[in-house]
Amino acid sequence: MSFKLTVLVTLAMLAVACGGLSDIEVEATIDARIASALTAVPTLTPMPTATPQPTATPVRVPTPLPTATPVTFPTPLPRATPQPTATPQPTATPQPTATPQPVPDFQDLYSTVWPSVFLVETPSGHGSGWLLEPGLLITNEHVIRRRSIVTIRQGAEGAGSFSATVVASDKPRDIALLRFNTSTALQAGAAPLEFGVVTQADLAGPLMALGYSSTNERTDGSVGAPTANVGVLSQVVDFSSDGFGLNLEMDTPIDPGDSGGPVFNADGQVIGINRAVLVNTATGQRVVGTFYAVHIDEIIAALPRLRNGLSR
Q: Which of 156, 174, 207, 274 has the greatest number of beta carbons closer than 10 A?
């Protein structure tokens, strides 16, 4: 409801309440009251116009970066602890130069002893043997096994062959003694071979083995000189628990046909008889370069029984 209408209503109510006023008086009274009321109404002071605020510059929202791929870095190694500097050692006193030891001249030795080595032949194969003394030869038991007579062939051209009888054999030691007629013509240079001594102190000492691993039989029955192989003594082994006695373990290569041939030390003495090659270990592993010879002590121990014709 407006302000003027409110005043008119109020005055009308008063006129009715008072009664007896004429219309002119009432209208005059109303006009007077309106004028008085308008005078009392305060004049509104206009509000100042607001100062325009600058429009805010839009802020650019950054584009989110893609999530970085995690990188695994290695764990850093601990820093090494500095080690103390070594205490200088005193300068070594110069030692005198060792006197060179003479290398055994197996070539000269070979030319001396080879005529005393023979090929021992049986119907089932052949081996080697050597001159123990006039009329007696030594070989391996496995060369003449179950034979009573064998053929002996010599190396020198024209020397021919002859027969020998098996006197006795020692199977565990793998030794056999053969006898031939002392009237048999032997090749030039054939002489009984000298025994030597061999112990653990001789390990790594040089050895030479002779035998007939290859033959070159001629029309006259001779077979040429025996082959020579050189190596060192690797070990002295005792197979007594197996009944085979002492043996020389060596890297001197020997092949089929060399069995029964002599093994020499650097002094030209016989210290063993070619016997066997180790092919596999007990677990089946392949072995290369291990060979065995009957130890000279076993030969010496067996000879008395063999001379008496006693085999075992």
A: 274
